């Protein structure tokens, strides 16, 4: 193994992430009372230009006034190429930053995009005397962002996670589809396999969480589950929910089954017993297990422990 290692920057339970438009105040309390792990209040694509300023005010009020019941709270700001972005950061963080865990930055193309937001955050946090540091999450949804995904992941700073935004990625790469997520009948396999796998590899190399983005057809739970299973198989640890009906699906798909948790504990126990005998490997149920098995088992147990801690 290389001497250069990047441990996980920040552990957060992020199996399900509910997208809540800042212009739809009726959804705020429902989101707070749901079983979702993570919420991002949206100022970008889900909000029309004429509603941007009011949505910003809505989000500030909601962060300050609503009991979010221990959920991780994030805000998706507008892109750096818009004139909305700086007020999103300044107004939301200055007025409600004490209730904010992360900021989701859309259409990140180069590491400097994050540096721009981080510089603003650092100044606001000092000025306001915040006791905590707000993290950053990058939405990889452009061809430029994917071309630079490793450099973005490696950049120093507050970055905690990357999300794959399949809709905009399809548009920017001129993919022949008008479907947000899911399988393309004209493609022999998963059209997004490479992109998600590349982003996940960059995340794991540099200690970031890897999250899959939206699945547009919320009337097709089976297809959502299939999409989540494919992502989970690649190492992704959570997925967006654009509709409340998708929350339980995501929680189920990204929670290790009880038998998987039990086997992970047995792997650890068997390897500890092997160590006492001076062995580096062991036999469990007719299969060889070794240090790699332990690392996989520890990944399972970390998620199980986080779920248990949520209660």
From TrEMBL:
Its cofactor is Mg(2+). GO terms for molecular function: lyase activity; magnesium ion binding. It comes from the Bacteria. InterPro entries: Aldolase/citrate-lyase_domain, Citrate_lyase_beta/mcl1/mcl2, Pyrv/PenolPyrv_kinase-like_dom, Pyrv_kinase-like_dom_sf. SUPFAM superfamilies: Phosphoenolpyruvate/pyruvate domain (SSF51621). Pfam families: HpcH_HpaI. Signal peptide: none annotated. One of its GO terms (biological process) is oxaloacetate metabolic process. Residues 16-244 form the HpcH/HpaI aldolase/citrate lyase domain. The keyword Endoplasmic reticulum does not apply. Mg(2+) binds at residues 141, 168. The keyword Magnesium applies. Substrate binds at residues 76, 141. Keywords: Lyase, Magnesium, Metal-binding. Belongs to the HpcH/HpaI aldolase family. PANTHER family: CITRATE LYASE SUBUNIT BETA (PTHR32308:SF10), LYASE BETA SUBUNIT, PUTATIVE (AFU_ORTHOLOGUE AFUA_4G13030)-RELATED (PTHR32308). This is CoA ester lyase. The lineage of its organism: Bacteria, Pseudomonadati, Pseudomonadota, Alphaproteobacteria, Rhodobacterales.
